[in-house]
Amino acid sequence: MLTRRNLLKTGAAAAATGLAMPALAKNSSIKIGYVSPQSGPLSAFSEADDYMISQFTKTAAAQGLNVEVVVKDSQSNPNRAADVARELIVRDEVNLICVASTPETTNPVCTIAEAEEVPVISSVAPWQPWFIGQQGNPGDPASWQEFDYVYHFFWGLEDNVSVFLNMWNSLDTNKVVGALWPNDGDGNAWSSGVGMPPAAAAAGYQVIDPGRHQNLTDDFSAQINAFKQANADIFTGIPIPPDFTTFWTQARQQGFTPKIASVAKALLFPETIGQLGDLGHNLSCEVYWTPDFPYSSSLTGESNQELAAGFEAAAGRRWTQPVGFSHALFEVAADAIKRADDPTDGDDLAEAVASTNLNTVVGNIGWGKENLPPFARKNVAKTPLVGGQWRRQDDGSYDLVIVENGNAPDIPVGGDFEAIA
Predict the structure, then answer these.
(1) I need a labelling partner for 5 at 20 to 30 A (CA). Which of 36, 261, 311, 344 fits?
(2) Can you tell me whether residue 301 is helix, strand or coil?
């Protein structure tokens, strides 16, 4: 395959034989491509992007790091994500790509970049749909292959499931769980043998699964009826934000009132909760970053409290969980660029990324640790995950309170897990 990297290597070979090639300036600008869903139904994940990119470029310049960030919008569409990855590689000739937010964006970008031998730092997608979702035969672990250029940091389904089960085990329920899983990368992973069903069954829970739904569904009556008939005390799922708003509003209208609702992805954002009014109280979710995380930035020295305050002052709105990971992507990028012998060489830069061992605002990031299956170890670094609940305040606003930290005891809890009503 004649990739851009192969063309560059051909050029290097030509130079070795005496053909004229332009010399590489010692202080050449490093181009970083950045891809995220800045529009479409997943756009809430990218609310911090503009601020973080602006802060990164200012900080990098102050530290003598000559970088340029080329931003692309995946439009919450996998096909668009693949197209902009090709643009970044072929037209913009980036040296590194950072990509964030759900497998629908991370996976197409990483697949293209791996084929073109361009290094990528990826995040904000559970590692199973990221790693397994890019395999030629996801159902055959023996066929899975490691990657040479793309590296991902986040938590896994096992961490999220564990957080949810820890919260559920703290309350008295009938252990019947209604599950709402979409027909997308996240939903298919959560509903599979590497997701919720086997872990829940092992813990004594019965999962009611009415089947996959299409994103942007406007009528969840069939699913709601199935959960009511099973008398589910617990509701879980991983819908996109607009779908959860639709589902939860219809569920309460139709009399589905579980004791617990623990929902991944959709409940990360204060805007989603705010749209629900009183119906958002004590809804629970995974928490992968808040200002209360006891870490600081390797790039700016800011605490997480300072990072959140800076974002809120600039954006005029509440912090959101992806704030920390948007910042951490650029922490890892800057660290790798500084350590690479030649950051304009894809192989050198990929090696620098792979050898990362960095304390960031989301915790320590380092690939190759002994906390993952062999096929993912080289390419996945896990970060801490805890559980939280949204608590409605007297003024109608919501606070996200950490209520479960069994897998990350260094992150402080702020209250006990409570039933919805």
Answers:
(1) 36
(2) coil
